[in-house]
Amino acid sequence: MRAFYEAVIFSPEKYWHSQGCVIRQPWDMEVGAGTFSTLRNAP
Predict the structure, then answer these.
(1) Number of domains making up the chain
(2) CB 37 within 8 A of CB 27
(3) What is the pLDDT, as a whole number, of residue 2?
(4) Is 14 part of any domain?
């Protein structure tokens, strides 16, 4: 059963990776007003 859930979760990630997209996992971090985004500094 675990393999089924992993396949469901990773199928979209594999697709977008094949399209050249970078997959970033979300994380919880307090940033105040929300103006500090670590994604805007991504290369």
Answers:
(1) 1
(2) no
(3) 72
(4) yes
